[in-house]
Amino acid sequence: MVWTRRTVLLLLLALTVLSPLALYTSRLSAALNPIQTRDFPGEITNQGRGVKADKLNALPLETVSSLKEPVGLVFSEELGGLAKESTGSEGQELPSRKAGEHKSRVLSEVTAAADGTEVIEQVTRQEAQDGGLASAVSDEQEKTTGSQQQSSSEESLQETVPKQTSAKVVMDNSQAARTDGKAKSSVLPDTRIRNIKDQLIKAKVYLGLGSIRANSQYLKDLRQRIREVQKVLGDASKDTDLPKNANEKVKALEQMLIKGKQMQDDCSIVVKKLRAMLHSAEEQLHAHKKQTVFLTQLAAKTLPKGLHCLPLRLANEYFSLDPGQQQFPNQHKLSNPKLYHYALFSDNILATAVVVNSTVLNAKYPSDHVFHIITDRLNYAPMRMWFLSNPPGKATIEVQHIGEFTWLNDSYSPVLKQLGSQSMIDYYFGTNHANPDSNLKYRNPKYLSILNHLRFYLPEIYPKLDKIVFLDDDIVVKKDLTGLWSINMKGKVNGAVETCGEGFHRFDRYLNFSNPVIAKNFDPHACGWAFGMNVFDLAEWKKQNITQIYHSWQKLNQDRSLWKLGTLPPGLITFWNKTFPLSRSWHVLGLGYNPHVNSRDIERAASIHYNGNMKPWLEIGLPKFRSYWSKYLNYDQHFLRECNINP
């Protein structure tokens, strides 16, 4: 009886102890079974029992207690290094995965160590397959299965990396990849050229150091290397322009600089030398800029050989003609106010020819256009001969010289009296100036010519006309200009295009507002306008007595205290509040100094103006704009061929 009781107690005790163990073992086997049979080979089972085994790929050995879920994602670099997961069969391969296990995993590669081994860092982050909405689904699933997660210690150990941390790691990796990509793509071009120039500067610094100069052999070798690199560099502006032996020469110079660095280790001396070189370079730059301005002004004043030859050949031909052959046809049209009249004052034959040709070729009715050309005595015969031998279609031409206007003398015109004064001549041609003007353009002798000032005497020169268009000789007409005569100028005298889009085209740039007379009568911020293509209402001119206003201001400026020389400053004053602004498309400026004039503006313009020193007939003219001018000249004309004038 006693034995029976003992047996029953032992059986109950065994059942009490062994049944939980059996249940625990069964559940553990069920949990591990998918991993053992699908993702990893049988070595995992041995590791769980404490048996030593080889490493599985690059993963370190793990015990059952630290075993992590197998990776269901692979790493791939696409579109700037962003990790994309392969999720096509994830749900099918791991059917027994619990809700808490719905976290994707990525493998971020780490650069191989020096010993050749690779370290694979396993991180987790939330799946964002639909743009981030999956995180909400995961949270909902976690809430519904919270009790199951709490009952399994193995499952809780699998969540060793927080969600936010893993997401941050992946974001950092992707951002770093994008940054590296941008850095590679933003590398400055022609780095070899820059590096070579830097090495040359460094070498020149070494040449001036005392310790270097004391070593004659090193100094000789360094100079030789500098010459070799300079020869290799030449005029190259791009890396592709460098010869094949450039690297060899540069490396030789670098080796010499390394030796020099060992000989000179005092940085303060090098700094002083660099400062001295910088100061010297700034002084040279200033001198070169000043010289460039002077040479540009000189080139603008200089007459090319071909343009000197042309009037001589034309004059010789003109005086060989009979008097009857020296006359222009259609002279009865010169005073007809119903026609379209143009005033053009110039001593440049080619420039005048381009203005006339471009206007006639773009006119709808060329026979209705009349050109009044005034030149000096020297170019009178050549100018007439040019248009006699090259008539501009059906248009009418008149050529006069200044001497024909006997009424225009120094007793009538204050500017003529000033231009002939000794002080004015000394200002332009004197060599000893106590206070020379810093702006050389104001010292251009062209301002001594009365041709520049004839524009202020238009009603006196053409008393029978009511309206006239004034054209400079550096203008090219691209469209029909007859629309200018139909503009209602609302009682204004001068129609012009305003140029105040930039600050330096306002009144304070042309007039001396420190003078109380100027400051009292004008606004320093008033908008300037341009001479070159202007329409003048001569009837209103006479009515408002514009010429007398011009004379009064010229008398006040006898000592040049109100403005420097030129025609635009007195024009701004004379036509103050008497200028009608025209549309900018009538007159586009800047082709004689600004290489960045908008090509679209040029195409839309009725006329383009080569104002500035870089005239299209000079060698210093801007090549990109020269074709607009040269297309209106026939370079096969025998006078041009004889004088070797080419496009």
TrEMBL record:
<dbReference type="GO" id="GO:0016757">
    <property type="term" value="F:glycosyltransferase activity"/>
</dbReference>
<keyword id="KW-0808">Transferase</keyword>
<feature type="compositionally biased region" description="Basic and acidic residues">
    <location>
        <begin position="95"/>
        <end position="105"/>
    </location>
</feature>
<protein>
    <recommendedName>
        <fullName>Hexosyltransferase</fullName>
        <ecNumber>2.4.1.-</ecNumber>
    </recommendedName>
</protein>
<comment type="pathway">
    <text>Glycan metabolism; pectin biosynthesis.</text>
</comment>
<feature type="compositionally biased region" description="Polar residues">
    <location>
        <begin position="161"/>
        <end position="177"/>
    </location>
</feature>
<dbReference type="GO" id="GO:0071555">
    <property type="term" value="P:cell wall organization"/>
</dbReference>
<feature type="compositionally biased region" description="Low complexity">
    <location>
        <begin position="144"/>
        <end position="160"/>
    </location>
</feature>
<dbReference type="GO" id="GO:0000139">
    <property type="term" value="C:Golgi membrane"/>
</dbReference>
<dbReference type="Pfam" id="PF25557">
    <property type="entry name" value="GAUT_1"/>
</dbReference>
<dbReference type="InterPro" id="IPR002495">
    <property type="entry name" value="Glyco_trans_8"/>
</dbReference>
<dbReference type="InterPro" id="IPR029993">
    <property type="entry name" value="GAUT"/>
</dbReference>
<keyword id="KW-0333">Golgi apparatus</keyword>
<keyword id="KW-0328">Glycosyltransferase</keyword>
<dbReference type="Pfam" id="PF01501">
    <property type="entry name" value="Glyco_transf_8"/>
</dbReference>
<comment type="similarity">
    <text>Belongs to the glycosyltransferase 8 family.</text>
</comment>
<dbReference type="InterPro" id="IPR029044">
    <property type="entry name" value="Nucleotide-diphossugar_trans"/>
</dbReference>
<feature type="region of interest" description="Disordered">
    <location>
        <begin position="84"/>
        <end position="105"/>
    </location>
</feature>
<feature type="region of interest" description="Disordered">
    <location>
        <begin position="127"/>
        <end position="186"/>
    </location>
</feature>
<keyword id="KW-0961">Cell wall biogenesis/degradation</keyword>
